[in-house]
Amino acid sequence: MSPRTAWQLIWLLCALPLADLVFRIAAQQLGANPQEAILRATGLWSLTLLLVTLGVTPFRQWLRWPELIPLRRMLGLWAFGYACIHLLAFWAFEHDFDLAGVAADAFKRPFVTVGLLSFGLMLPMALTSNTAAMRRLGRGWKRLHRVIYAIALLACVHFFLHRAGKSNFIDPAIASAVVLILLGSRIYFRR
Amino acid sequence: MARSDAKRLIRGDHLSGQITPESVVHRRRAIMLAGAALTAAGPGLLQASTPKPASAYAPLAAKPSRYSILERPVPFEEASTYNNFYEFGLEKEDPAERAPGRLKTSPWKVTVEGLVARPREFDIDELRKLAPMEERITRLRCVEGWSMVIPWVGYSLSELIRRVQPLGSAKFIEFTTLADPKQMPGLSYRALRWPYREGLRMDEAQHPLSLLTFGMYGVMLPEQNGAPLRLMVPWKYGFKSSKSIVKIRFVETQPPTLWTLTAPKEYGFYANVNPEVAHPRWSQATERVLGTDALFAPRRKTELFNGYADLVAPMYAGMDLKTFY
Prior knowledge:
The structure holds 2 protein chains of 2 kinds. Chain A is an all-alpha fold. Chain A has helices at 3-26, 34-63, 69-95, 99-108, 110-127, 131-137, 139-145, 147-162, 170-188. Chain A contains 9 helices and no strands. Chain B is of the alpha+beta class. Chain B contains 9 helices and 13 strands. Chain B is globular, with a radius of gyration of 20 Å. The A-B interface holds A 20, 23-29, 31-36, 92-94, 96, 101, 104-105, 108-109, 111-112, 161-162, 164-169 and B 27, 30-31, 33-34, 45-46, 48, 74, 78-79, 81-82, 86, 90, 92-93, 145-146, 148, 189, 191-192, 262-263, 266, 278, 280-283, 286, 288, 290-291, 293, 295-296, 298-299.
């Protein structure tokens, strides 16, 4: 398989959860609370793809496989895409498109604050993900894009807070472990 | 809502079990079409489980209640597949998938004990005959910020309380849910303090609105909805309405509950529906009304005591509802 085909295949895989969601919405198969299902699925996929994005560089170094580099941007942008839908769904379903409500939540509830913060940090990264920005920013680009670790950790905290009610921390613990292992390996193998 | 339905609801003489909202028919058709399309497309992306319809359960006759609200219930399918019943798993679809076939609701005994003159064990069949059944359409408001209108069948809990003659020292009642790991796979989840225990103050339990519930939609309760008997305390968040009750104990002091033991900052003992008292992670000012079909339907303004303020507010006169949440 050529790298180009692999890239396209992975692009399609990233689109699959979204396609599934759209299909289920159209078929009214999301159960009694479709809004909640949309919020949860997009949040989960954003975090999952964020973790996969984080994994690209360590794997590329480990496998000595430079062809993996272009995947990083695509995966990261998909993570951002799911985060966008997640935020839109929050704004629409939890606040009836009322910005003041979102703002009030942002100041009052750490659960929301952390989620918004994570999204806010994703924004400059998505905007500077194109080649032109990479060239213009030079070495600064690399520094800027290390923020992804902060984003991932904030997303994990957001996930923990989401599960606080039932104390069901298995999934957020797995996600956090992945982030910490990948971050640790980056620091350990730093050249 | 079709106009004729609205009229029937207002007259109060409908039988909710007979309503099959058009939306459900459309939805079923959509699911069937989608299923056909998927089959044709080859590997199935999804598999839709087929939940049991209301007609699969034994009927439970009841007369209409004056406490019903004039709103259309959600489809039975939604009320019976979107449940919080953590003894069967933490996801909303878990109880509908795991409770039927596992939870054995017959024989079933309920122990009534503690500070009463006549403590005794009741058989579920006897309890069903204890008082005339009423159908009450009420809004179930979950602490998670959603609500569902459901027609419940049962009678006021006070009917039972009266018969066991509580002593003057009885100030609270504790309700215990079955906790049998053989029947309930969710009990292996140790972060919650099983068994599920809930409690009411004596006056709350004796209030005619507190319904000892045996059925819904004109039929016996499905397992996932708390068969064979549960509570429905409509002015409180749903978690106060214990499911699959095996023990009712009259006590002198406020009993600890699963939620006040597990997450005391999030869930209080009173748990009265109150738009002014926020949950730490979300506001309770509004709620998502389930069963509307419209993805972008506006949220509903949550009412104090879930709309029953006229009937229940006097019980809390002088109490700070923010402190006693």
